[in-house]
Amino acid sequence: MTIKLFNTLTRQKETLTTLEENKISMYVCGPTVYSYIHIGNARCFVFFDVARRFLEYRGYEVNYVQNFTDVDDRLINASIETGLSVPEIAERYIEAYFEDMDSLGVKRATTHPRATENIQEMIEFIQGLIEKGYAYETNGDVYYRSLKKEGYGCLSHHSLEDLKSGARVEVNDLKESPLDFALWKAAKPGEISWDTPWGTGRPGWHIECSAMARRYLGDTLDIHAGGIDLCFPHHENEIAQSEAMTGETFVRYWLHNEFINMNNVKMSKSIGNVMSVVELRKHFQPLALRYFLLSTHYRNPMNFTEDTLKQADESVSRIQTAYENLQHRTLSAQVGEVDGSIVSQLEDLTSRFVAEMSDDFNSANAITVVFDGVRLANDLVSREVITEETGKLVVKWFETFAGTILGLIHSDGKSLEDEIEALIEERQQARKDRDFALADAIRNQLLEQGIILEDTPQGVRWKRK
């Protein structure tokens, strides 16, 4: 089954083909690490994590690069405000980013390059653009000549006239054109800086990704992705400078996810409705956040409300409970042949899931298929007799599609999470010791966490409320 992707550049779905057979080079713009990431940032990182997982399921070796912008105006401003150095601030929020992403089940990229680790590559890139006539130096700044590059505006589908009239341009008499953008910025007193042939300074934003993408993935990438807000000017400028430098097509497929609104209002720091992931994790289980971010097609806007998060929490708990109940039921199932009708149903579920994800990574419809799997699992659990082989087959289906690809269940091969298991064992020992007050206290502690215990002849069974 072919994979279709909606290419922002062509504004149509295209069949995925790769430069190298069974290999994909994929670059996703990472965070600027001056603060905690918000739920809008997380949509990009969670969704393209799932896209990568699905591509790996389909047999591709994915070289996945996601950068950190660890030097720019916002980090410098944070440094001035806090008295910490730019590297100290960057390190703090890179650690916070990984803590957030680990909780949301986002796999580490193949490479997480930092801008400050690639300064020499940027300097050489800029020098090459100057030599080719695409960039010019003035008073220690270096600017890119946007009007020299044929097709500038192709990604955002704007003409040069539209871009000129709509540009919000700072007063700068040093630029040849209002559309020219900074490749390098001369250092101000006290700022972090590096030495270059044209003076001391630091890189502009756009050059960072072009230089890092080229270093780690080559002149042409299969997929470049990010939030829709990056389409212009960031990705537009990446195309201009990269193709001017190499003479090659920079990216074959451009993918962009849409915004998240907060209670039907665009999320904006100016109005104070930005929700950080670290704050949301205090109130909702991380898998509920992940479920929410995957429950709408990535090219459609989303609306965040407390109710939608509560619904997401209930939905992901339904999936987890069905999976764990089936695991538990399988432990006491009888040995026997696999049920042929169940095999047929799983084949149908698999075919539908793969079809939805192959159609521009439609995670929302793929989740619908998972809930059909939930109904199948619940039906099996309710049967008087099932075979162990049948149960294991359905458990494996959940671990692959709800777990490995969507990342919506804890599928570590255990029927109990470590913390809950430890508490249950402690309660069992307390009962043996006839310390019923402690046993009841542990039961109540688990109940407060939404865990219900059932004492059965086969042992203690638990489920979420």
Automatic annotation (TrEMBL):
A motif ('HIGH' region) lies at residues 31-41. Keywords: Aminoacyl-tRNA synthetase, ATP-binding, Coiled coil, Cytoplasm, Ligase, Metal-binding, Nucleotide-binding, Protein biosynthesis, Zinc. It is an enzyme of class 6 (ligase). A motif ('KMSKS' region) lies at residues 266-270. InterPro entries: Cys-tRNA-ligase, Cys-tRNA-synt_Ia_DALR, Cys-tRNA/MSH_ligase, CysS_C, Rossmann-like_a/b/a_fold, tRNA-synt_1_cat_dom, tRNAsynth_Ia_anticodon-bd. Monomer. GO terms for molecular function: ATP binding; cysteine-tRNA ligase activity; zinc ion binding. Pfam families: CysS_C, DALR_2, tRNA-synt_1e. It is found in: Cytoplasm. ATP binds at K269. The keyword GTP-binding does not apply. Its EC number is 6.1.1.16. Its cofactor is Zn(2+). The gene is cysS. Its main location: cytoplasm. It comes from the Bacteria. One of its GO terms (biological process) is cysteinyl-tRNA aminoacylation. GO terms for cellular component: cytosol. This is Cysteine--tRNA ligase. Belongs to the class-I aminoacyl-tRNA synthetase family. Binds 1 zinc ion per subunit. SUPFAM superfamilies: Anticodon-binding domain of a subclass of class I aminoacyl-tRNA synthetases, Nucleotidylyl transferase. It catalyses: tRNA(Cys) + L-cysteine + ATP = L-cysteinyl-tRNA(Cys) + AMP + diphosphate.
